[in-house]
Amino acid sequence: MGPGRLVAALDAWYAEHARDLPWRRPEATAWGVVVSEFMLQQTPVARVLPVWARWLERWPTPAALAAEPPGEAIRAWGRLGYPRRALRLHAAATEMVARHAGHVPTESQDLRALPGVGDYTAAAVAAFAHRQRTVVLDTNVRRVLGRLLRGDPRPRATGPTVAERAASAAILPSDPEAAAAWSVALMELGALVCTARSPRCGACPFQDSCRWYAAGWPGSDTASGRRQAYAGTDRQARGRLLAAIRDCHVSITRGRLETAWDQPGQRERALASLLADGLVVAVGDDSYALPGPPTDGHAVRCR
Fold this sequence. Notes:
The protein is mainly alpha-helical. The chain is built from 15 helices and four strands. Among the domains are: 29-128, Orthogonal Bundle (Endonuclease III, domain 1); 234-302, Arc Repressor Mutant, subunit A (Orthogonal Bundle), CATH 1.10.10. Helices cover 53% and strands 4% of the residues. Strands 2-3-1-4 form a four-stranded mixed sheet.
């Protein structure tokens, strides 16, 4: 199946099966696309949807977010996980205000210069917010194209190779709007059909052309790897401590943190890492808070 037929097959599949996500709608702003890309990193769509909606209601523009302290971004991030993304998103908004008159930049180099924005996020914003022709390679897209074009069971963990980018560019539609539609449809196919653990090849529009399927799913027993344990880890301890601090306004005492995680050594490591990442600041000798003053009028110290 040539590139033109691949595009047509995927377009037909996407028209029937695409999820109605707010950041994909015509009325979505470039800022809304940026927020979605930050939130969707390593986080399922179902968890992102309500937080994204609340975020855009409260901060509909980069300037609205930049006007508040970074601690409010962490508080609003809630339990999405990987909260450093909230700090980076706040920093990116601040940079947009300082250097781009409060707008999401359109040039690739300006996008990549924003805090928290790498090659993938810059390409995604260029394609989905600004409708530019650019190669967008997230894990889902890399998995679909790797299986389709090369018969690889899974993408390399080290990131896209030069060969991957060249192969993707070779089949990317020349029209910018069509290229953006192709990229988002590939992402959707990887999320819903060509999944890491349980691919539904019978529902795939590329089944007849897929090298991995034709070869009998080589490497399928190791395609997904093992899930990393979470319970009892330093990451869980960090999450518990940050949740306790987030739920208090102004500050929380060290004694109260001891009730959030009862393993002293692990608690101290987690707290030290939160301080090092700038997610938490020390207030006096025995209290901690989110960075910046709270803005919702509460003044409660949790003891």
